[in-house]
Write a structure and sequence with these properties.
Blueprint lengths: L6 H15 L6 H18 L5 E5 L3 E5 L18 E5 L1 H9 L4 H6 L3 E4 L25
Helix pairs in contact: 1-2, 1-3, 2-3
Length: 138
C-alpha cells in the first residue's frame, strides 16, 4: 500500500508551485518531486482506476472519475480507457489554482481521451485557508 502524502511534502509542492507562479524555474529534481507528490495526492483524493493521468517524464497515476469511480472492478488490467496527459508545469499550475482546467484545455496544455477525461473537479489541490498554500482539500 502506498504511503500518504506528508505535510512536509505538501509544503514542498506548494513552494515549487509558488516559484513557478513567480516566474522562477525550479531545478529538475524539485520539479520531479513536486510532480510525483501532486500525483500521489490526486490518487489519495480520487482513488480508482477509470483515468490514467500521465505527466512525463516523471509520473503516471490511475485515478477515479465519474460514477462508481472508486469501485474496484471498474478497470482491472492495462491502461484505463480514459487517458489524460500534461506536462509537469501545467500540473503544478493546476494544483495551485494559478491555471484552471477549462483554461488548460482551451490552451491545449492537456491531451485527453475517453468519457471520464474531464478532471475539472480535481483542481486546485492547494487552495484555501487550511493548507500550506491555503487548501481545505488537503
Amino acid at each position: 500500500m502506498a504511503r500518504g502524502v506528508s505535510a512536509a511534502e505538501l509544503a514542498a509542492l506548494a513552494a515549487v508551485a509558488a516559484r513557478l507562479r513567480d516566474g522562477e524555474e525550479p531545478r529538475p529534481a524539485e520539479l520531479a518531486a513536486a510532480t510525483r507528490t501532486a500525483c500521489r495526492r490526486l490518487a489519495e483524493l480520487h482513488p480508482g482506476r477509470t483515468v490514467e493521468l500521465r505527466v512525463p517524464p516523471w509520473a503516471a497515476v490511475q485515478l477515479g472519475s465519474g460514477a462508481g469511480a472508486s469501485q474496484r472492478g471498474a478497470h482491472t488490467r492495462g491502461t484505463p480507457p480514459t487517458v489524460v496527459e500534461t506536462d509537469p508545469v501545467t500540473l503544478l499550475r493546476l494544483a495551485d489554482g494559478s491555471l484552471d482546467w477549462p483554461g488548460a484545455v482551451a490552451a491545449n496544455l492537456v491531451r485527453r481521451s475517453g468519457v471520464h477525461s474531464d478532471l475539472a473537479g480535481f483542481w486546485p489541490l492547494l487552495a484555501g485557508p487550511e493548507s500550506p498554500t491555503g487548501s481545505t482539500q488537503l
